[in-house]
Write a structure and sequence with these properties.
The chain is globular. By secondary structure, the chain is of the alpha+beta class. The two termini are about 20 Å apart. It contains three helices and seven strands. It has helices at about 10-30, 80-85, 145-155, and strands at about 50, 55-65, 90-100, 105-115, 115-120, 140, 160-175. It has a seven-stranded antiparallel β-sheet with strand order 1-2-7-3-4-5-6, sandwiched between helices. Strand 4 (about 105-115) and strand 5 (about 115-120) form a beta hairpin.
Length: about 180
């Protein structure tokens, strides 16, 4: 969506559009899966996507893996991973998956320009972001990498993580 709308233009209508288009995309990704308890993986995501007013392709490429609070010099903790992920990029988007025990958490995040980051979360329920048994999709804009790190730690809640680069291309207007 950051290729379609500037981050400063995002509002509740655009987030509603993200949810509706994301639901349609998810339905397309699972339409051929017959197992009732199948857990969708990154490899199951399809390339073709559309968000009005464009159709386009999206590629997900494994980029970095690590442990959220690792202090080993040779392995990535989340801070080192984010620095490395954005290094030499003016803008870049990704998906992070965090695993802690049997719990899996996901978030989309990115850098749209110098000192402008975002994090999109549509899974959070309850504290620390919401009241008990409440939740809603939301996006947070951050002006520092440290703030992005802070909010990702809050919503992912620790564990091992996997970061995927998300690249969109071949944009064409919907006719």
């Amino acid at each position: 969506m950051t290729n379609i709308y500037e981050l400063s233009e995002w509002n509740s209508a655009i987030l509603d559009s993200v949810l509706a288009n994301g639901d349609h995309y998810f339905t397309e990704c699972i339409k051929d899966i017959k197992e009732p308890n199948y857990e969708l993986a990154m490899d199951d995501l399809i390339e073709a996507c559309s968000i009005f007013p464009y159709t386009f392709k999206v590629a997900y490429t494994p980029a970095i893996e690590g442990t959220m609070f690792m202090t080993n010099v040779k392995k990535f903790n989340l801070y080192k991973a984010l620095r490395y992920f954005f290094e030499n990029y003016e803008s870049r988007c990704g998906i992070i998956i965090a695993l802690k025990g049997e719990h899996k958490r996901l978030a989309a995040f990115g850098k749209t320009q110098e000192n402008e980051y975002f994090m999109y979360d549509c899974q959070s329920m309850g504290p620390p972001m919401f009241f008990e048994r409440e939740g809603v999709a939301y996006i947070l804009r951050c002006i520092t990498l440290a703030r992005l790190l802070h909010v990702l730690i809050l919503i992912l809640k620790g564990g091992d993580f996997y970061i995927y680069d998300v690249e969109t291309y071949d944009f064409e207007p919907i006719s």
